[in-house]
Design brief:
Layout lengths: L21 H8 L36 E2 L9 E3 L3 E2 L36 H9 L3 E8 L2 E9 L5 E4 L1 H4 L9 E5 L5 E10 L4 E5 L21 E6 L7 E18 L18 E2 L15 E10 L11 E3 L5 E9 L13 E5 H14 L5 E2 L2 E5 L15 E6 L4 H4 L7 E5 L2 E2 L3 H9 L6 E8 L2 E8 L1 E2 L4
Parallel strand pairs: 1-21, 2-12
Antiparallel strand pairs: 2-15, 3-5, 4-5, 4-7, 5-6, 6-9, 7-8, 8-9, 10-11, 10-14, 11-13, 13-16, 14-15, 15-16, 17-24, 18-19, 19-20, 20-21, 20-22, 22-23
GO biological process, one term: proteolysis
GO molecular function: serine-type endopeptidase activity
Family: Belongs to the peptidase S1C family.
Amino acid sequence: MNEQPGTSDRPLPPQPSRPPAWAAERDAVGSSAPHPAYAGHQPFYGDSGGSPSPQQAGAKAPRERRRVGVATFAAGVLVAGLIGGGVATLGYSALESDSSAGITQADPESIVVNDLDDVNTVTGAAVTASPSVVTVAVSGGSAGGSGSGIILDTDGHILTNTHVVTLGGQVAEPTIEVRLNDGRLYPATVVGTDPLSDLAVIKIDAPSLTAATLADSDELNVGDIAIAIGSPLGLSGTVTDGIVSTLNRTISVASSAVPEQQPDSAESENEDGFNFLPPGNPGVPAPQSQGSVYLNVIQTDAAINQGNSGGALVDKDGQIIGVNVAIASGGSSEPTGNIGVGFSIPINYADRIAQEIIADGEASHGFLGVSITSASAEGSPTSSPFSSGALVESVEPGSPAEEAALQAGDVITGVGDLTVTDAESLTAAVRMHPVGEQVPVEILRDGESTTVDVTLGQAQVG
């Protein structure tokens, strides 16, 4: 049950004051015209076939194994990340009005608290976390869109998704602007992207930034309060709440950023399931998907919509537990809005990727070196309604798997503290680990269970 006490003993942080007019702030950062994704307009109301308005544009103690899931989740989802400059069939994407008027009719720029004597858990968490959550506007060529981001440090590093900064693969050299919670606007540069995790780091040069406080996502429980903060449908500073519905859900998301054939991967059986959602500008074709990104995610029923991607999922204390990345689509390739099933990349994994990108410009992912299929797959030697695990079809010569004496016919049932139920969950589990880490791999061989230690290599993209 998602309990929300009527009051909280935790004091509220000071409320940020409303910023000066947007025009003055643009002058401060050297921008004289609105970003395409922030183009001012009146809200557009229309049915699903309507056309948008022309103005729119460290080492830890061992813990019990966490289960990945009975089977890889196969319902259709859409990446929650992009509201195209001009996509307004749901009615709202205005981020500001005409700045030349001197008074901006923008969305609220901070959490409004009118009664300080009656502040519930969600309000307190939102006030704590919101100064660290930003709106990310991206444009390139004729494409434009917006997502969300999380401020990692006072140096200006911001964590978001690869599909946000590339507009779902449409833009190689994006123009990016970041709107802070207090309304300030700054240009941003890309520090690095990581297609295998769909994470990216961008950077702004700005004073007085509030870095997010990160929780330990390994300590989450199903049923914990989960609060999503970001810019769904272009509406910055939006807060929704729910609970952690499931932990370690494996999803596969079709991506144009990764090759069709990847190490330690089986061909995805989820052809209609997980797809990056491009901005959808009229006349701009969606990029063709090549391969799939495999992720172990936090599932939540907190409302997550297009534009939430890259934004924060926080706990009751306002600490970041995940990076919002995808939503369920109800089995359709078209966005249907929130249906109570959203997905977030655990912050422990996301922060590791981010810190590697900041340090080296790229991130590493573990590589085992096996060709695999699901043990329950039709036609496999272990096929059975009760089969679970990843069946090794072959072992790559010279790979970490060969060095650890893995063999064709072995069924991998666990990696580290994660249970492996199928080929996709094995891929996700292996890639969560960095290069060079030694992990225990549990296998079934000739009906007997054994564990071997494997020192992982480097997964390659392309």
